[in-house]
Design goal:
alpha+beta, Glutamine Phosphoribosylpyrophosphate, subunit 1, domain 1, ten-stranded mixed β-sheet, four-stranded antiparallel β-sheet, binds glycine
């Protein structure tokens, strides 16, 4: 072998090492990964669903789940899986995040999002952004490319443009159904829940092959929101939390209650400090929300990759997939999840 050949081989080895995902280098021998998502909780009853509508929702949930599962299966990070899943849901007008976001009282779309990396508890969040196609990517950019955790309004939009994120016109977010909900709310003096029937936030939690956790949440908030109202979704510790020592959480619900209970952080704290198992911690915290008068649900990923759901509503759009073969989506609280392919 000539020196030229040796140099060539060494170059190839170096190049391959450079493109291999960091998580694959550190992957645990069992290659275990896990992901869960939600698309909002609320009074999702069978009476309100046609078979066609139900099938459409299940297909959308499965598509978003597949996007995140693919990242994890191929050795990508939990952060990448969470953003892959949420960007699919943000582009789907059926969900209240990104395209399809609900309207404010003034008839605009103002979106909130947050993301957290369980590896080091780095976090990013945005509130009240109106022209960014993927608020979850903006939250991630805040985390990765700014010295801050939480940006809002015009400043957040300016940061998005500076970061080269996709900026879209207001029509991108506009949907007839959401417009009608705002009109009905105003005309009949109703609450957001009377017209939406659900808290249509979206979110994802994941554990990658290195055992790292991540969580993300994105929402349009509540129909008819005023005065710059911000819910729990972009509030780190309320709507989103991730800590490799305990769990990752994304919430969907009546934001005011979820903030007051500190839902996402509280679940992980119970696991970390009180040694509760993941389902018990999630159930107890959702029960506490209920006792205070709020409702909604959570998806939780334990540090061992166990994905669980908890809700006090009749339904929650949800799904989960694992390296061990789980692959299912569900809508109603009392149903057995349906298996994907
Ligand atoms: N959970 C979404 C909100 O209250 O805005």
């Amino acid at each position: 072998m000539t020196l030229h050949h040796l140099t060539l081989i060494m170059g190839c080895v170096a190049a391959l090492a450079a493109i291999a995902p960091a998580s694959a280098e550190e992957a645990r021998p069992d290659g275990k990964w896990s992901i869960a998502l939600h698309g909002g909780a609320g009074t999702l009853t069978r009476a309100r669903m046609t078979p066609e509508k139900e099938a459409e929702y299940r297909a959308s949930l499965q598509a978003a789940l597949d996007a995140g599962a693919k990242v994890l299966r191929e050795g990508g990070t939990a952060m990448d899986a969470v953003t892959a899943t949420i960007t699919v849901l943000e582009d789907d007008p059926k969900f209240n995040a990104g395209r399809g976001a609900v309207y404010t009282w003034e008839g605009t779309n103002e979106m909130d999002a947050s993301i957290m990396d369980g590896t080091n508890r780095a976090a990013g969040a945005v509130a009240g952004v109106g022209d960014v196609r993927h608020p979850i990517l903006l939250a991630r950019a805040v985390m990765e490319h700014s010295p801050h955790v939480f940006l809002s309004g015009k400043g957040a939009e300016q940061f998005a443009a500076e970061q080269g994120l996709e900026i879209v016109p207001p029509e991108w977010f506009a949907t007839e159904e959401r417009k009608k909900q705002l009109e009905k709310l105003k005309k009949e003096h109703l609450s957001a829940l009377d017209v939406e029937f659900k808290f249509g936030t979206v979110g994802a939690v994941a554990m990658d092959q290195s055992g790292h956790l991540a969580a993300g949440t994105s929402t349009g908030g509540m129909t008819g929101k005023r005065w710059g109202r911000i819910g729990d979704s972009p509030v780190i510790g309320a709507g989103t939390w991730a800590d490799d020592r305990a769990c990752a959480v994304s919430a969907t619900g009546w934001g005011e209650y979820f903030i007051r209970v500190g839902v996402a952080h509280e679940i992980c704290d119970r696991m970390l400090l009180a040694g509760e198992d993941v389902q018990t911690a999630a159930d107890k915290v959702i029960a506490e929300v209920g006792e205070m008068g709020g409702d909604g649900g959570v998806i939780v990923m334990s540090k061992d990759g166990e994905p669980v759901f908890a809700m006090n509503t009749p339904g929650m759009y949800r799904g989960r997939a694992t390296s061990e073969g789980t692959n299912e989506v569900a809508i109603f609280s009392d149903e057995e999840p349906t298996k994907g392919d």
